[in-house]
Amino acid sequence: MTDAHHRAAIAERAARAGGVVAREQFQTAVAIETKSDKTDLVTQADRDAQQQVVATIREEFPNDRFVCEEDSPQLSGPESEAPAQVDSVPANGSAWIVDPIDGTTNFVRGSRAWTTSVTAVVDGEPVGSATYMPAMGDLYAAGPESVTRDGETMTVSERDDPETFLAAITNRWEDPAAFGDICHATGEAFADVRRLGSFQATLAQLADGGFETAVCTRRANAWDTVAGVHMVRVAGGTVTDVHGDRWEHDSEGVVASNGADHEAVLSAVQAALD
Q1: CA distance 129 to 133
Q2: Which member of 17, 64, 234, 237 has the greatest number of CB atoms within 10 A?
Q3: Looking at the predicted structure, is the pLDDT value of residue 200 above 70?
Q4: pLDDT at 82
Q5: Residue 27's CATH number
C-alpha cells in the first residue's frame, strides 16, 4: 500500500505541475487546432501541460507507461523498445492516465471550468488520482482510501430524495436526439440539470457533494473519466455503466451517483435509451 500512496502523491504533484503550465496560457491568444471535428480542439497549452505532467511522473517512475489524450513525442523511443505511450489502460503493470486540459473548449473561450487530471493505475485499477482546476485554484485528490479538496476531506451528497437531485449531463452535442433524450429524462426525474463541459470537473464536484448524479450514455475515454470515477467511489458514491454493472474504463456509458438511490438514476438513463 505504501507504493499506492506514493503514486497518489505523484499524481497530485503532476496534475498541479501540468495545470500551472496550462494556466500560463489561459486567456491568451493561444493557437487552436482541430482533431476529429470542428468541436474537438487542441492547443499548444494542452501539449505543454501534458509534457510537464509526463516529466514530473518520470522523475519518480521512469519506466511506466502512459495513456495520454495528446500524442507525446517524448514518449516515443527506438523501435526496439516497447512504446511508453499506449492506446488503452493496460490490464497488468503500472501506468498513468493523463488529460492535460479536460474542457479545452472552455479553456479557449476563457471559461474557468477546465482541469488537468492524472490517474495512477496498477493492474488496471486506479490507486490514486488528482484533478486540478488551475483557473479556480481547487485541487481534488484521491488515494487508496481518502479523497480531499484542497486538503480537506470530502464526501458525496447525503440527499436521498431524487426529486431534489442535481444531475450533470456529460454527453456531447454530436447526437442532438440522444442529447435531448437524456436531458428530458433527467429533467423529469430530478430537480435540475447542468452541463459543465468538463467530465473530470463534473465527477470531482459530484465526489464533493455538488451533484447527486452525473450521466454519460456513450463510451467515454479513460482520460476523461477514470480520475473522477475513482474519486466518486472513494468519496462513497456508486458508478456503473448504463446497464447497472460495475463501471470499467471501457464500459458503455457512465452512470455516477451519490449512491443514495442509484436505481432511480439508472431508471432515468434507461428511459432516455428506450
Answers
A1: 13
A2: 237
A3: yes
A4: 61
A5: 3.30.540.10
* Same domain? 40 vs 114: yes
Q: 180 — alpha (psi -120 to 50), left (phi > 0) or beta?
A: alpha
Give CA separation, 235 vs 10, 168, 196, 231, 256, in Å: 20, 17, 20, 6, 12
What is the rounded average pLDDT of the residues 138-145? Answer: 97
C-alpha grid cell, residue 2: 505504501
Cβ proximity of 235 and 155 under 8 Å: yes
CB 117, CB 229: distance < 8 Å: no
Cα gap 149→134, rounded to integer Å: 13
- Final residue in a domain of this structure, among 130, 153, 176: 153
110-122 in b/e form (b: 16+ CB < 10 A) is ebebbbbbbbbbb
What digits encode the pLDDT tens for the residues 79-134? 445 669 999 999 999 999 999 999 999 999 999 999 999 999 999 999 999 999 99
| Mean confidence (pLDDT) of the chain | 94
Q: In the chain, which ranges are continuous DSSP H helix?
A: 2-25, 44-58, 104-108, 176-189, 199-207, 222-234, 262-273
> In which domain, by residue range, is 170 found?
162-273
> Based on the number of CB atoms within 10 Å of its own CB, is 124 exposed (0-12), middle (13-18) or buried (19 or more)?
middle
- What is the pTM (predicted TM-score) of this model? 0.95
